[in-house]
Amino acid sequence: MLVIKIGGAAGIDADALCHDIAALWRDGQPMIVVHGGSDETNRLAEQLDHPPRFVTTASGHTSRYTDRRTLEIFAMATAAINRALVERLQSLGVNAIGLSGLDGRLITARRKDTIRVVENGRQRILRDDWTGTPQQVNAELLRLLLAHGYLPIVAPLATSEQGAMLNVDGDRAAAALAGALEAESLLLLSNVAGLLRRFPDESTLVPQIRRGELEAASDWAQGRMKKKLLGAAEALNGGVTRVIIGDGRRANPVRAALDGAGTTITQE
Prior knowledge:
Helix 2 (38-47) packs across helix 3 (68-91) and helix 5 (170-180) runs parallel beside helix 7. A hairpin with a 5-residue loop joins strand 11 (157-159) and strand 12 (165-168). The strands form 4 sheets. This protein has an 8-stranded mixed beta sheet with strand order 5-10-2-1-13-15-16-14, sandwiched between helices. A 4-stranded mixed beta sheet has the order 6-9-12-11. A two-stranded antiparallel sheet has the order 3-4. The protein is of the alpha/beta class. It contains 8 helices and 16 strands. The mean pLDDT is 95. Helices cover 34% and strands 28% of the residues. The protein has helices spanning 14-26, 38-47, 68-91, 139-147, 170-180, 214-217, 225-237, 253-258; strands at residues 2-6, 31-35, 54-56, 62-64, 96-100, 107-111, 114-119, 122-127, 131-137, 151-155, 157-159, 165-168, 185-190, 208-210, 242-247, 263-266. It has a domain at 2-36 and 83-107 and 140-266: 3-Layer(aba) Sandwich (Carbamate kinase), CATH 3.40.1160.10.
């Protein structure tokens, strides 16, 4: 089982990705695809006069502050991305099916009622945040779809225990799905070559690290890469054999990453 997370940042070649995914699917590789939506959400938010706001937590992770209006915009943006990916894959002969983590309680998350952030060197508490941390996965639903020949394409939304829609981090959602499905590999594709020791110098790519080295490696990570390492740790803790951070900008991005391009993170 392979779980592929397509990053939501600009620069990723969706057509190359879909051709690669379709080729693997025709070869009999069982997989699911999770996608982000950050760049499309930013554009849509600007158009709707509700500009995005990003915050940095006390632990150093950067994320989108999601009030209720931002959540609605995020849902619209990820729905458009989801439909576009399904359309591309259907045109390539793959019976893709689009859904979000909200559907069928695919992903149940714990809502963060408040978040502690650092702004201008000072800590403060933000309320009315509609983000969550994945807690449970309806793996039975995914196995049912896979058994009937569908390729699930999953948008990073979730439901709270009370049934409320939540925004969840795509990398952590993919990690939760990979663990629940006992996947051998989780592939996190982004618009960088992998983990760089000195960002943005791609000649400093770190080709391989072990699970026990992730905490030290987080000191090199910049911006969203910190969340990818967090997702990698959660996937490995969930039993995934390896996590690969690959480059979604290149030709044959999935096969290249599986063949060793990027950063491979393995168990001890």
